[in-house]
Structure to design on (230 residues):
């Protein structure tokens, strides 16, 4: 049996204006390298196309939306563009994640700093733990995840995936365990949603911040999920 996924990273990438297509091509070219990393269980490169839906604070008294910075005029020197892409990956151990950080993918992306990428994510802010997950494949077979056998190293879990969602929210003071319970229940519900291919519940250690990242084979699947119980 494979070791369960316990850790992840959520890496925001800001493309230099006009370089979005070039960065997209670079990210696509890195996928084979990710498949070679036996203990990088899942690796997704996603492009942000629209704002995320409202977090579940309206129906859950234990959460509040993540703070949103006050908009700054584009001409201001301290303005920070919103991320254009996100790289999300999962691991069974700290050593597996550290091995990934020392590998070709981060080195390649760092090498594009100043040409395709603006800025560099802060290391401490990209580290997350996996509270629970449903890991699937569009063909209906299980992916590599908690309590499941690890597939072959060249299994492409992205095959057939078209769209996703990323939602972040903050636990109210003293309600962290309640939010964990909410997310655990959400994973169970996601496993009943045939069109929700993969679903990850996350926590940023040392903070009150939690989040959900999930993937679908079609816009219809995403809409069905948004209209569901979670």
């Amino acid at each position: 049996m494979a070791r369960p996924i316990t850790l992840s990273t959520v890496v925001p990438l800001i493309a230099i204006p006009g370089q979005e297509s070039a960065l997209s091509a670079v990210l696509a070219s890195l996928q084979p390298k990710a498949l070679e990393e036996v203990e990088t269980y899942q690796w997704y490169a996603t492009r942000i196309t629209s704002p995320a839906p409202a977090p579940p604070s309206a129906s859950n008294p234990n959460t509040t939306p993540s703070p949103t910075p006050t908009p700054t005029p584009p001409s201001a020197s301290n303005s920070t563009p919103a991320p254009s892409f996100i790289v999300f990956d999962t691991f069974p151990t700290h050593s597996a994640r550290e091995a990934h950080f020392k590998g070709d993918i981060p080195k390649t992306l760092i090498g594009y700093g100043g040409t395709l990428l603006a800025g560099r994510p802060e290391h401490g802010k990209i580290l997350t733990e996996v509270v629970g997950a449903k890991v699937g494949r569009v063909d209906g077979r299980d992916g590599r995840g908690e309590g499941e056998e690890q597939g072959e190293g060249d299994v492409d879990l992205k095959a057939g995936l078209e769209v996703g969602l990323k939602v972040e929210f903050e636990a109210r003071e003293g309600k962290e365990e309640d939010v964990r319970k909410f997310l655990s229940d959400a994973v169970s519900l996601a496993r009943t949603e045939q069109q929700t291919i993969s679903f990850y519940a996350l926590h940023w250690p040392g903070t009150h911040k939690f989040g959900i990242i999930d993937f679908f084979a079609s816009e219809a699947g995403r809409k069905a999920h948004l209209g569901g119980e979670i």
Q: What stands out?
A: The chain has a mean pLDDT of 83. The first strand starts at residue 7 and ends at 13. Residues 35 and 68 are 35 Å apart (CA to CA). Strands lie at 7-13, 42-47, 63-65, 85-91, 127-134, 163-171, 196-203, 209-216.
